[in-house]
Automatic annotation (TrEMBL):
SUPFAM superfamilies linked to this entry: Bacterial luciferase-like (SSF51679)
Domain Luciferase-like: 5-301
Tree of life domain: Bacteria
InterPro entries, A to Z: Bact_Lucif_Oxidored, CmoO-like, Luciferase-like_dom, Luciferase-like_sf
CC per GO annotation: cytosol
Family: To bacterial alkanal monooxygenase alpha and beta chains.
Protein name per UniProt: Luciferase-like monooxygenase
One term of GO molecular function: oxidoreductase activity, acting on paired donors, with incorporation or reduction of molecular oxygen
Amino acid sequence: MASLSILDLVRITQDTDARGALLNARDLAAHAEQWGYTRFWVAEHHNMAGIASAATAVVVGHIAAGTRTIRVGAGGIMLPNHSPLVIAEQFGTLERLFPGRIDLGLGRAPGTDGETLRALRRTYEAADAFPQDVLELQAYLSPEAADRRIQAVPAAGTQVPLWILGSSTYGAQLAAILGLPYAFASHFAPDQLLDALAVYRERFQPSAVLSRPYAMAGLNVIAAETDEKARRLATTQQMSAADQFRGARGLSKPPIDDIETYWTPMEKIQARRKLARSVVGGPETVRAGISAFIAETGVDEVMIVSDVYDHAERLRSFEIIGSLGLNSGAAEAALAAG
């Protein structure tokens, strides 16, 4: 078994505005806490009309304020878009407000298009400094930071847990060198999953944070009472994937009866490749699929994306997943033990 966690896309839908999406995310986190999920993450995406988590630190605080015990964090902050000092200030503040509950996953990609990157006053070359930026951020969060001339107030000493995120072997190598936990985005970039996990484990160097590798991987899971109903719910995510290839990212669409009427043969191939790491079905189908994923990858934790249009149906999907007896709930103990 592995621990189960949630990555919520904070989707703005054709029936729900940004405020509704943010309230739904907080409500889902409160339920997830009751159902035994380990952590609840949101991600930084800019200039995307259908995603409400661009101001990621603000959203993390909103969700943490509506929960009591579940870990809440960023999966992730795209560090090249920011000054490490500012991110340390933001997440150090969150840790002071919600002690022992904040995670900070760090990504190297911009999380947006080139024009928006320029609006952020950043360039693609900023990603080249990612390893140095991670170390600088880590230093601001350390106890020793209190004695330095430049401080990220009130971050010094908070030691907010850092995760390296990735969709290739680059992040795996960096996480291994730094001895940090690693999360692979196989829910949308599945191709290098097994290679990246192998690199991370083979090259891992023990650190003050971890004495052994700790790996997480993303998995799309849509659960319902029956396989047929789950497959219909899954058409929302399939349409979203097709729209991305069309360059037409927009609001989340309600499910349809026949996805074949929506996408072209080429879009179908592209979307299925993007969503290759997906489990869709009734309880037994989902149980078998998640179990197979854990057995194949050996991950310590599965970060589940359940991109379901209707909020009540999304809650039900996560409730079913959480009831299958697959959640080891041992994530924090493993990380604490190093």
